Amino acid sequence: MTIDSLISQYRLISSFLNDRWPLKNHEHRTFARTMKIMEELGELSDEILTSMNLQRNTKIEKFSRTNIEDEFADVMGSLILLGIELDIDIEKVMQRKIDFTRDRFGMDDEK
Questions:
Q1: Between 20 and 30 A from 72 (CA), which of 6, 7, 51, 100?
Q2: Domains annotated on the chain, with CATH
Q3: Residues 10-42 pLDDT 10s
């Protein structure tokens, strides 16, 4: 899957969410998307703590690697949805940030 196809699929999800749970305006949608990221990040954090045996035994007993992967995907999906709402060219800005990081640390493109 390419980032372009991922974003295309999330554009469809965004349209569905906006139709299913219409919000008053762009600002409300941006706020809701931001809060969803926080919710999903908390769930990912919870799963990571569980994987480190830093939760109650009932959670530890139910742990699976799939839980971390699913929560990671939820965080990424929520970030993409926010990017769509903010009309960010996600591929472009990610490449810009990668280039900045490589330049900052003197990394070769091949590594």
A1: 100
A2: 3-105 (1.10.287.1080)
A3: 999 999 999 999 999 999 999 999 999 999 999
